């Protein structure tokens, strides 16, 4: 099942057409989005997701999102969801119709089932390749017009990177900067475990601040882990005790293979961290 | 007026909704497009535009566009256009609905009037700022997953760059590479005149091969100019005899101001080159 609601609260048929061909979200990838995990009727990390939506919107000079309206529409979708216990909730916010003098954004929330591939990735882990993102780690601060770190609808590169991973026999990607810095996955953040410490790179290098990564870190700290947000180098990935991708719908996913080489088994660390993450919502 | 036709030839109301919220063109900027100038009922550079559409589609691993169907739908829009003598014709081709097992692309052509701002730019020229695109000139060949040189729907950066230009009191942008190489405009190619020679950078550095730039070059060669496709450095821009942006709808636009400094008057060169360009279609 799927549930679609527009920001004004109107429920709509997700199989019908609702968007004009000249919506700038479509014509120019000119808009922002979020994907929230809903589990047992509760949206996880909704506050950080809505904060990040507002941050992305600001980076794109979109009108400030109406936070209360977004909270209401999230509730509307959840209240109308009669599917399984967990689902993905997408929030989409575009610049609206090209040339509209009133500049009304297009805004909707949609509940979607979680695909089998995602469920499998959660339990089995994933093979990942590193791919050059072609940018320096200081670029985001130097050139804000490149929208690095905005969750924009212009995700064509991210999708192309996943297809490249597929060609290389993997299913996901870790982007690296020109100096070898670890950036992020196309739809995830990188988390590395070494001893009892978790690491993730800082958002200032031009990546999305991770909502799930932050939740994992909170849960892990509670379970006695140390957490550090600091630059990581691609050379450090293979030698870690555990390498993970954090994303809302896939939660914390174990990377079992990196650039074609099997990594040391991190199943136990993964189980502990996955439990620490779930404990945040217990 | 506007005319909308889908690739199967169906005419549709451009003010109605035709696109689903889960179209990947919208959700992920996952698709390609072209903008063709139609003048006196004839599409200009249609062959190069359709070739480029196919090239972009291939870079995004989209199904090969049905060339004859695109030619037909272009004809359909033109035949139904009752507006002025010149209009913009957009071709849009997306990956279609997420999860569609038949993977049918969304494909349409739309005729749109040419805005006043464009008409003004054609006659008065534009103020331009150079902005760092943050990439090395060899990146496109090294990292095809970055889709450099594909005309994809993920144009968020290009739109953000134009807003940055606006903040700096200009109306357009010339992107530069990390080594100072001249790349392209967000929706145009850079053409530089020095003596009786025209220059534009090669597409291999990760930019779109220009349909209008190529037409200008053909016309100019016919009028006795030499043309060269070779790397240009940002330092060369201000000292040229003429600096221009070439794009389908704006044609050859004179840059009168670069990074806040007035450039030498290139009106005469512009008039000659504009005439040479028009002569291609005479």
From TrEMBL, chains A, B:
Superkingdom, taxonomy of origin: Bacteria
Any GO molecular function: 4-amino-4-deoxychorismate lyase activity
EC number: 4.1.3.38
Keyword annotations of the record: Lyase
InterPro entries per record: Aminotrans_IV, Aminotransferase-like, BCAT-like_C, BCAT-like_N, Class-IV_PLP-Dep_Aminotrnsfr
Pfam families, alphabetized: Aminotran_4
Stated family: Belongs to the class-IV pyridoxal-phosphate-dependent aminotransferase family.
Identification of the protein by name: Aminodeoxychorismate lyase
Organism of derivation: Amycolatopsis acididurans
Higher taxonomy: Bacteria, Bacillati, Actinomycetota, Actinomycetes, Pseudonocardiales
């Amino acid at each position: 099942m799927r549930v679609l609601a527009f920001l004004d609260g109107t429920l709509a048929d997700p199989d019908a057409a609702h968007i004009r061909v000249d919506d700038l979200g479509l014509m120019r990838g000119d808009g922002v989005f979020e994907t929230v995990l809903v589990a047992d009727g509760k949206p996880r990390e909704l506050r950080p997701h809505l904060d990040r939506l507002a941050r992305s919107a600001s980076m794109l000079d979109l009108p400030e999102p109406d936070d209360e309206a977004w909270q209401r529409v999230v509730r509307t979708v959840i209240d109308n969801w009669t599917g399984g216990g967990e689902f993905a909730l997408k929030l989409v916010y575009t610049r609206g119709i090209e040339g509209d003098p009133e500049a009304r954004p297009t805004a909707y929330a949609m509940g979607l089932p979680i695909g089998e591939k995602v469920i499998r990735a959660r339990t089995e882990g994933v093979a990942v390749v590193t791919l050059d993102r072609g940018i320096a780690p200081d670029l985001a601060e130097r050139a804000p017009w490149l929208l690095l770190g905005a969750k924009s609808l212009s995700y064509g590169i991210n999708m192309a990177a996943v297809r490249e991973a597929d060609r290389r026999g993997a299913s996901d990607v870790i982007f690296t900067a020109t100096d070898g810095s670890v950036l992020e996955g196309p739809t995830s953040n990188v988390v590395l475990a070494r001893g009892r410490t978790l690491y993730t790179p800082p958002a200032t290098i031009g990546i999305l601040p991770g909502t799930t990564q932050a939740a994992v870190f909170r849960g892990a700290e509670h379970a006695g882990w140390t957490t550090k947000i600091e630059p990581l180098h691609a050379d450090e990935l293979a030698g870690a005790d555990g390498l993970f991708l954090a994303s809302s719908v896939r939660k914390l996913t174990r990377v079992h293979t990196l650039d074609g080489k099997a990594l040391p088994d991190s199943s136990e660390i993964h189980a502990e961290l996955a439990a620490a993450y779930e404990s945040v919502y217990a």
